[in-house]
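Wait, can you check?
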Amino acid sequence: MPTFKDHFSTLASAYASFRPDYPPALFDWLSGLCATHDLSWDCATGNGQAARHLAQHFKQVHATDASASQIDEAEGPVNVAFSVAPAEASGLSDHSVDLLVVAQAAHWFDLEAFYQEARRVLKPNGVIALITYAHHRVDAEIDVPSLHYYEDVIGDYWPPERKWVETGYRDLPFPFAEIAVPAFSLTASWTLPHFMGYQATWSATKRYIEATGHNPIPELEAAIAPLWGDPDSRRTITWPLSLRVGRV
């Protein structure tokens, strides 16, 4: 079994508090691709963001994460079963899954082993969906220091797998019968403290602090605060979503 690349266990509580949620329309569309709606697997569920949406469309949701800390923070409806398991060994029965979703995590996997597991658990004609998003947008002014932080301050501290995210998974191996995807965007309405908390959950921020002993978030906040105005006022943050969707 491949070694789990754990960038987020120590940030599990903050991850649950500050990560953005996905648009319901995305899961309406994904569930509409499925002939039956018995079971969905939310692989690398984190704190259960995608699982909560899937629960509205499927009788049962199997939500797994290799991080016990993330599962400890996860919450969902009664038809969501959370468990600790790696992406490559779900514990699910053969050909039992209607829809397999991986939200913002497939780039960390041993893809060959994961795809083997996906083929094992998906029903004939079952659907697999890999979801990702890269850098956010706020407005022309705030985006300047925010992008500088993302690319220049912590840019060297992103794990190498981040390259897949930056290309919207277009270059990620995907050995399935691909389905064309409509445009989806993720949006949030956040205060300045929430916006800062989100950027503090990034794996590159964590690695920067570990390497330098310096927390760069206060300096980022000092650069953005004059452009934001009242820190308790809400701004709309947008992330274009990228998906690879296919059938076995």
